[in-house]
Amino acid sequence: MTSIHGEVPLACVPNAIPADARPEHFARIERLFGRAVLERHAIDDGYELTFGVSELDELARFVGLERKCCPFLSFELEVRPGEERVRLRMHGPPGSREVIEAEILPRA
């Protein structure tokens, strides 16, 4: 579904994640973004987060489900040669940073 401007509307679709997958998905979010994240930086309309490269598979699982729930977000995973870190960038239309803060990142 797109808006008249050709962008996906800023709206979550919680039922896009199957009910039986939600508990594991929410536990993954809590672990990744609450304990495993090494660095966190706000960027235009989103966040860039850094994790150890050992989290790559879990991050890919997160993105695979979260992109269904939040179709307005762009997700970028970056692993550079020789580095032991992976970067996840999540961003989207104006207001996306606030959605990420409310729904994904732990409360400070």
In what order do the strands lie side by side in the largest sheet?
1-2-4-3
**Topology as H/E string?**
HEEHEEH
CATH architectural category: 2-Layer Sandwich
* Computed CA radius of gyration, to the nearest angstrom: 14 Å
What is the C-level CATH assignment? Answer: Alpha Beta
Head-to-tail CA distance between termini: 33 Å
CATH topology annotation = Threonyl-tRNA Synthetase, Chain A, domain 2
Estimate the mean pLDDT confidence.
91
The shape is globular
Q: What structural class do the secondary elements suggest? A: alpha+beta
Strand content: 15-25%
Number of E strands: 4
| pLDDT < 50 runs, ≥5 residues | 1-5
Percent helix: 25-40%
Our count of domains comes out at: 1
Largest sheet: 4 strands, antiparallel
Query: How many DSSP helices?
Result: 3
Summarize the helices and strands and which ones pair or pack.
Blueprint: H1 22-36, E1 39-43, E2 46-52, H2 56-69, E3 74-79, E4 85-91, H3 96-103
Antiparallel strand pairs: 1-2, 2-4, 3-4
Offer a few descriptive terms.
globular; alpha+beta; 108 residues; 4-stranded antiparallel beta sheet; 3 helices; disordered N terminus; Threonyl-tRNA Synthetase, Chain A, domain 2
Describe the overall structure.
The protein is of the alpha+beta class. It has a single domain (18-103), classed as 2-Layer Sandwich (Threonyl-tRNA Synthetase, Chain A, domain 2), CATH 3.30.980. It has helices at residues 22-36, 56-69, 96-103; strands at 39-43, 46-52, 74-79, 85-91. Strand 1 (39-43) and strand 2 form a beta hairpin. The longest helix is centred in the first third of the chain and has 15 residues, at 22-36.
